[in-house]
Amino acid sequence: MYQPPHFKSDDRAVAARLMRENPFASLISVDDAGLPFVTHLPLHLEDRDGEFVLLGHCAKPNPHWRFLRQRPTAVVTFLGPHAFQSPKIYPDLARVPSWNYLAVHCTVAATLVEDPAAKDSLLKKLIGDHEPPYAEQWRGLGEEFAHKMLAGIVGFELKVVDLQCKLKLNQHRPESHAALRAGYAKGNDDERELARWMDTLGMLEPHGKTGGRT
């Protein structure tokens, strides 16, 4: 993606936080006609000795797993909080509106997970991310039901071979930071989350001084 230097983050911990807090991703492959094929799905992030691996699955009728088998290189995108930026945040009028957002793009190498026991382990990790108590219900549904459900999906591991993290929060315009954060802090869920990220990134220093660190 387009990466102006003032929005680029090389902090893998920041990227990991964004992916874990916004796990509903877009998996993008090339189909047999040479066009992008997109599946929207939750992914589980693991850090394996400094290497990121994403775990997920799709329904067996979804051809995406076949595209991954034929062409294992794919792209995964995560979109974090995003919101409109009004020109009212600037002290002068010669400004235009914009949009702020946080995003992570990963180039991945895919490996299919088709063994039932491995798929069951993968599912338990996703359950652990979103509804841990359901694990007991899943175990109680019985082996026959579990095998039937597992037969209907194909799992995959996506090894992250390249990562881009973009934090677009108007870092290059420090004169706007106090007004931008104040407006976001009173806004909707996405806007309040962007205000918290501004705090995390140290864009507002004590005593009203602003900075643009990423």
Task: Please write the string of helix (H) and strand (E) elements.
Answer: EHEEEEHEEHHHEHH
Number of domains: 1
CATH class term: Mainly Beta
Which fold name is given in CATH as the topology? Pnp Oxidase, Chain A
Number of helices: 7
CATH architecture: Roll
| Rg (CA only) | 20 Å
The proportion of strand residues reads 35-45%
Sketch the major β-sheet. 8 strands, antiparallel
Give structural attributes:
214 residues; alpha+beta; Pnp Oxidase, Chain A; 7 helices; disordered C terminus
Textual characterization of the structure:
The protein has one domain: Pnp Oxidase, Chain A (Roll). 32% of the residues lie in helices and 35% in strands. It has helices spanning 12-21, 64-70, 116-130, 134-140, 143-151, 177-185, 189-200; strands at 8-9, 24-30, 36-42, 44-48, 51-59, 73-85, 98-113, 153-168. Strands 1, 2, 3, 4, 5, 6, 7 and 8 form an eight-stranded antiparallel sheet that branches. A hairpin with a 2-residue loop joins strand 4 (44-48) and strand 5 (51-59). The longest helix is centred in the middle third of the chain and has 15 residues, at 116-130. The radius of gyration is 20 Å and the shape is elongated. The model is unreliable at 207-214 (pLDDT under 50).
Write a short abstract of this structure.
By secondary structure, the chain is of the alpha+beta class. It has helices spanning 12-21, 64-70, 116-130, 134-140, 143-151, 177-185, 189-200, and strands at residues 8-9, 24-30, 36-42, 44-48, 51-59, 73-85, 98-113, 153-168.
Write the layout of secondary structure elements.
Elements: E1 8-9, H1 12-21, E2 24-30, E3 36-42, E4 44-48, E5 51-59, H2 64-70, E6 73-85, E7 98-113, H3 116-130, H4 134-140, H5 143-151, E8 153-168, H6 177-185, H7 189-200
Antiparallel strand pairs: 1-8, 2-3, 2-6, 4-5, 5-8, 6-7, 7-8
Helix pairs in contact: 6-7
